[in-house]
Design a protein that fits this description.
Structural class: mainly alpha
Strand content: under 5%
Largest sheet: none
Low-confidence stretches: 1-6, 12-18
Distance between the termini: 60 Å
Helix content: over 70%
Radius of gyration: 22 Å
Length: 276
């Protein structure tokens, strides 16, 4: 009995000490999330109402333009314009907005990153979690509301929908972390991306089906991961839509490569970024 005590006491002591940094990281991330909630969305529900109204406005505008302005009889799938465009716009905006938030995480929390207990990982993780959850809630509310109001009588498969949204989050994390380094070290690349990202909505299959493109167009756009993500989400809302071109390993592979490269670069140079 007396010989076993010295062996057990150090083990429990070491385990308790190892859990302290993890607990500190959780507290830091939660504090950063609460800070952004108060600064970005405000202390009133109005900021979150705008998070709902912005994508809803895009859905309404595209639906009216295509059905009334251009006299398009039916969307690429089904007969309902709002559901078709919502299943493309919402995943696209999730990627676009989330990657932008992650890309600017270091400048947003620059003053706090000089404290030794706050790392660049904390700043990125806080922005990712808060904005990913926000977009996920917006997606659920808007799609549920549209299906209830329009009464589309469709059988939804949640598995491809959740895989598609998860792919959008992972791709946003990878692209956001990588550009979080590139746009801060080379600001001109941020301006170039603002120009190139303008036609990205058209090149991601939001307003049309990938299957309806000519062969040469499909061969080019297949390498856009957003095409696979939107195809997955639409597969969940349209049971008869197979989306055979979708490759989940491709989306995950591209996302993880960008994420790994971005984290390595930020680990090496994030001090230079916050000191600029």
């Amino acid at each position: 009995m007396s010989r076993s005590l010295p062996q057990t006491l150090p083990q429990s002591s070491n385990s308790s000490r190892s859990s302290i940094p993890r607990f500190r990281m959780v507290r830091t991330v939660i504090a950063l999330m609460l800070r952004e909630m108060s600064t970005t969305y405000g202390r009133t529900p109005g900021g979150y109402v705008w998070a709902l109204m912005q994508p809803l406005g895009s859905i309404i505008v595209f639906s009216l333009v295509m059905s009334v302005g251009l006299k398009v009889r039916s969307p690429g799938l089904g007969t309902n314009f709002p559901i078709f465009y919502a299943s493309g716009i919402l995943p696209f905006q999730m990627f676009n907005n989330l990657s932008g938030k992650i890309s600017s995480a270091l400048p947003f929390s620059r003053a706090l990153l000089f404290y030794p207990r706050v790392s660049f990982i904390d700043a990125i993780l806080a922005r990712f979690l808060l904005n990913a959850l926000t977009h996920l809630v917006v997606f659920i509310i808007l799609m549920t509301g549209l299906l209830a109001l329009i009464d589309a009588h469709t059988l939804i498969d949640p598995v491809p929908v959740m895989i598609g949204l998860g792919g959008a989050m992972l791709l946003a994390a990878g692209f956001g972390v990588l550009t979080g380094y590139l746009f801060q070290i080379y600001p001109v690349l941020g301006s170039v991306w603002n120009i190139l990202s303008t036609p990205l909505l058209l090149m991601s299959g939001v307003l049309f089906l990938y299957d309806d493109l000519p062969r040469w167009g499909r061969d080019i756009l297949w390498y856009n991961p957003l095409v696979h993500i939107i195809g997955l989400v639409r597969r969940g809302f349209y049971p008869m839509y197979e989306a055979a071109y979708v490759s989940v390993p491709y989306v995950v592979g591209v996302s993880m490569v960008m994420l790994a490269i971005g984290l390595l670069l930020l680990r090496r140079y994030y001090q230079d970024i916050i000191s600029r």
